[in-house]
Amino acid sequence: MKARTGFVSNSSSSSFIIAVKNDICPHCSNGTPFMGLLESLLGSGSDCSDDSTVYAVEQVVDRLNNEIESIEEFVLKHPEHKHSCDKEIADFGKTIAQIEEFQNSGEWKVYEISISYADNWIKCLMDEHRKKGLLKMVEGPW
Q1: Which H helix or E strand runs over 119?
Q2: What is the pLDDT at residue 6?
Q3: Which residues contact 28 (CB under 8 A, 6 or more apart)?
Q4: Which of 11, 37, 54, 108: CA 20 to 30 A from 20?
Q5: 40 in helix, strand or coil?
Q6: What is the pLDDT along the chain (142 residues), one digit of tens a residue?
Q7: Quick one: which of 139, 117, 120, 115 has its CA closest to 55?
Q8: 3 state DSSP class of 14
Q9: Whole-number Cα distances in Å, 134 to 20, 33, 56
Q10: Residue 17 neighbours by CB distance under 10 Å
Q11: Could you tell me if 11 and 126 are in contact, meaning their C-beta atoms sit under 8 angstroms apart?
């Protein structure tokens, strides 16, 4: 899993783990338009276009935990790499802790979004929401 905190111009897509402010309107019970877009794209691997996909927080944490398990299995077979792998495992653990902190606050919802290079409008929405303090990138070991 390779997620990023900035856009990559030479890639067909970029993946991000993001926290979106759980900004619910008290009058209409709707979230921000970006949150509504993300929620509408959840589920059966719904696509924004050819390559852009949104995953729920549970899928993100499961994927990170699977990465940790894979590294641990590798270390069992190659104990000489334990030291370097321990740091990687710790980094994945910190990312999971950061995700849980966002989720447990009740103020944020966490998603993983893979954005196609062609989906400039999603990149613009993300940048706009980040500037307004409604979106944060989750830091990770990538």
Answers
A1: none
A2: 47
A3: none
A4: 11
A5: helix
A6: 444 444 444 456 778 898 988 765 555 555 566 667 776 666 544 444 445 678 888 888 999 999 999 999 999 999 999 998 999 999 999 999 999 999 999 888 888 888 777 777 778 888 888 898 888 989 766 5
A7: 115
A8: strand
A9: 6, 11, 18
A10: 28
A11: no
Q: Which residue has the tokens 């794209």?
A: 41
8 Å CB contact between 103 and 111? no
- What per-residue confidence (pLDDT) applies to 52? 67
Q: Considering only CA atoms, which of 56, 32, 41 is closest in space to residue 130?
A: 32
CA neighbor of 110 nearest in space, from 85, 93, 135: 135
Q: 14 with 118: CB under 8 angstroms?
A: no
Question: What is the rounded distance in angstroms from the CA atom of residue 90 to the CA atom of residue 93?
Answer: 5
- pTM, rounded to two decimals: 0.73
Read off φ and ψ for residue 20, nearest 5 degrees: -110, 130
**Residues whose CB is less than 8 angstroms from the CB of residue 2 and which lie 6 or more positions away in sequence, other chains included:** 15, 142
Scan for tokens 């409604």, then name that residue: 134
